[in-house]
Structures are given as structure tokens and as C-alpha cells.
Amino acid sequence: MLNRTILKALPAGVSAPAYDPATIGTGIVHFGVGNFFRAHEAFYVDRCLALAGQQGWGIVGVGLTAGGRSERKAEQFAAQDCLYSLTEAAPDGGRAVRVIGALRGYLLAPADPKAVLDLLADPSVRIVSMTITEGGYNIDETTGEFRLDHAAVRTDLASSAPTTIFGYVVEALARRRAAGVGPFTVLSCDNLRHNGDVARTAFLGFARARDPDLAAWIEAHVSFPNGMVDRITPSVDDATAGALNAASGLDDALPLVTEDFTQWVVEDRFCAGRPALEEAGVQFVTDVTGYEHVKVRMLNASHILLAFPGILLGYRQVDEALRDPDLARLVNAYLELDVIPRLDAPPGLDPQDYRRSVLRRFSNPAMADQLLRIGGDGSSKIQVFWTETVRCVLSDGGDLRRIAFGIAAYLEALRGADETGVPYTPTEPTLDATQLELAEAEDLGAALALPAFDGWRDIQSPALTDAIVTARRAIRDIGVRAALVQYGGLPD
Ligand code: NAD
């Protein structure tokens, strides 16, 4: 079994931490010890811990959910001294395996809430980070406010024994304030635009409802940096875990695989200090907005542009869809002609390099990324990933064909069968049955009333409506591939 005693005798090709994990201190507490955190933040901190003077920045993970799976994970971490192996897989099949030692403890909050609060109140803790999923911040989508009516939040506001991350963090900040211990930085690593601002809204929303004085102190002293995080990290099932262990020669209960690409761009606002992450590859900036734009408009936008027609053509994985030359041409032409000329990239970021890196990453078979997952919740994703580009192309009179084809493919894919007749279930959590039926309406323009297209409705473009309806008709009459060739390539 993987644990500290075998670090000096790891199988050939597996790198050990370049420091002694038994001797590091705790500077960071992390909520939501999922795969992404283990492949991303913990990976960077692991690199930092190997540098002189950085050994106080070890991480203690906290799990908030009770139940068998969480307890099993806690037992597995304890048995392995919180060590685990991370396999970085390149698209060409190259692999590097390292044991990560940055996690020095793991606490299951429902089993020992006092230990979690004591730790959070400890002056050595200077950053509280989190990956609690996009929906974990409990923000009302329509008002943009923290939802005080949520049952667990109401319970936490009424008692001094917290159960939510908001309850724990705000109670800990109250204790630190009362004891004269300074604040810590609250660092969101979830995939949200301006994730620090979202976290700030959430924690301040909770704090205001609990104690306005405390909220004012938090507002004045706690920093919530925005960060752009990027590293595709799939979930690991038993078969994948077995294959990872067979390849590494380790007996690891918690092995992970991730891509060889990684990026973390963070605003340098840490109220209580931070590790020397810049020496571990993290990019510190004053404003993360430009990086978020590039990621959303290039990586996320082309991911769904590949997914919708890819699903219709019968593909199920991202890498296999990208190996289809017609789909690759569509994505390339979209990035080259529709996005890049209208993109305000931050200084030092070359959009052409970024385009090549996106396509290289999508081609990685080790990620085994599912097109149905990528294309799921298309309604929300289109609003976030395509809107700015569509608005730009509409306002400068650009070529609408690729955009029209992408939208047409989305609407056809909503019908739940690929062109070979194989059925699948599209995931659209925000659409009701009546809205979904619009995709089946005889009037092929009726579905343009869906919220996915709200972002450019005010521009009122009959040309785009016509192009979408014509593209849908083409997909049905001449088939997805012929329509793709007609619409998806370079201009005539
Ligand atoms: P995961 O399922 O492995 O882990 C999610 C973790 O969050 C679990 O530990 C879970 O217990 C915890 N969690 C969920 N809801 C919570 C809540 N309300 N309060 C507290 N804890 C909660 O998933 P993952 O792959 O690690 O992804 C987590 C997040 O990381 C994503 O939602 C996304 O924002 C971000 N991310 C993931 C990737 C990726 O490729 N996996 C890439 C970039 C960013």
C-alpha cells in the first residue's frame, strides 16, 4: 500500500515528493477534496513545498458530506498518510507519475466539527481554498444574491454548530476576529467566471444574515481573489484505477489521471500571505478577466461546437470527434475566423498558440471525455460560451455560417437521437418539457425562443434566424456530414 514508509522505494518511473511530507506544516485548509483539487492546487503546492522556506504551506482537506463514500475516502486517506499518485497523460501517450505529498491531513467535518473549527481558527492557517462545484455557492441565478432560504443555510444561521462551508468559514472568522488572530484568504478554485467575486457574495451574504458587524469586518479584511483554473481531470472508476496502478506499479487506493496541460491564473490579493506559487508555474495578475474571456470563448466554446455535431454523427468521445477531419475543420475555422479576430487577449497570451493547445488537449484519448457530458446543459453553456462571439459577428456583419450550423446542430441534438438512429438522453436541467418540445416543432425557427439565445435577442437578426433554419433543414435533408461540409469550413 502507498504510504510514507515506501516513499524511498517507489517503483521505477514514479517520482516521490522532493521534501519530507511528515515534516510540513498546515498553511491551507481546502474544502471539497475532489479529483480536480488533487490534480491542480495540490499539484502546485506540492511543487512549492520542495522549495526552500515553503514547508509551512501544507494542506489539510475537509469533506463536508456524511455517508459511507465519504467515510471510505477518509479511511483511504488515513491509511495512505494522505499520499496519492497523479498520472499526467500527454496526447501522444507519454506519461509521468508522481506521488503528491501536499495533503497532510483529511478531516470529515460531520465526524469531528470541533477539529475543523479549531484548525480554521489556528493562526498558521492563512488560506482557505475550495472546489465545491459551480452550484455550491448557493447563489440565486436571477437575483445574483446568496440564497438565505436554503434549508442547510437556515439551519446554520440558527445554530452555532455549522454544517455548510458558509457556517464553518464564517464561524472561524468570528473566532479569529474575537481572538485577535488575523483573517485568511478565501480562495475559490471552481470553474466560474470571477469565482472570487462569487465566493465573496456567498460568504458575505451568509455573514450579513448572521452578524452585520462581523460581515463588515470580513468585507474590510478578508480577500477573495479571482482565479482562472484549467486542467481536464476525469473521474476515476475502478477499472481506470486498476489500469493506473498496473501501469505505475503502485498499490494506490486513490490514483488519479489528468492531462499534461495545467493553468492557474490568479489575482494577487492574499490578505495573509501565500506560498511562492509563481515558482511552481502559477501566473499572478492584477485582473483575471482577459484570461477568463480567452478560456470561455476559445476552449469552452469550441468544446461544445465539437460536441453537438459530434453527437449527431454518432461519436461519443471528444478525442474521436476531433479525429474527424470535417469536425476539426469546423472548430479550427470557428476559432480562426469567428473568435480570434474579435478577441481581446491579455498581453503575452498568443491566441494562435492557445488554439493549437486547445486542439492538442481535446485530442488526448487518456481523458476519455464524453461528448454528452460536454454538450449537457447546452442551454446554459451557449449563453456563457457563445454569446460574446455571436454578438461581435452580428455587429460587424461577419460570416454567420459556422455559428448558424453550431446552433442548428445543438437544436437537432436536443431531439435525442443521432443520425444513425441511436437514441441518447440529452441533459438539459434548466429546460422544462414544453421548452424541450420546441426542438420538435414543425416550424424550425420556433426553438429560437429558447433561453440559450437570449444573449443576442436584442440585436434581432433575421439573417441569423434564416441561416439557422436553413442549416437545420440541411442537416435533415442532406445529413449532418454534408451540412457540416457546406457550413463548417473556410469561406468560399
Ligand atoms: P469531484 O466530484 O471529484 O469533487 C467535488 C468535491 O466537491 C467533492 O469532494 C464533493 O464532496 C465536494 N462538494 C460538492 N458540493 C459541495 C458543497 N455544496 N459543499 C462542499 N463541498 C461540496 O469533482 P471535481 O472534478 O473535483 O470538480 C470539482 C470542481 O472543480 C468543478 O465543479 C469545477 O468547478 C472545478 N474544475 C474541475 C475540472 C475538471 O476537469 N474536473 C476542471 C476545472 C475546474
TrEMBL record:
One of its GO terms (molecular function) is oxidoreductase activity, acting on the CH-OH group of donors, NAD or NADP as acceptor. Pfam families: Mannitol_dh, Mannitol_dh_C. Residues 27-278 form the Mannitol dehydrogenase N-terminal domain. Keywords: NAD, Oxidoreductase. SUPFAM superfamilies: 6-phosphogluconate dehydrogenase C-terminal domain-like (SSF48179), NAD(P)-binding Rossmann-fold domains (SSF51735). Gene3D superfamilies: N-(1-d-carboxylethyl)-l-norvaline Dehydrogenase, domain 2, NAD(P)-binding Rossmann-like Domain. This is Mannitol dehydrogenase family protein. The lineage of its organism: Bacteria, Pseudomonadati, Pseudomonadota, Alphaproteobacteria, Acetobacterales.
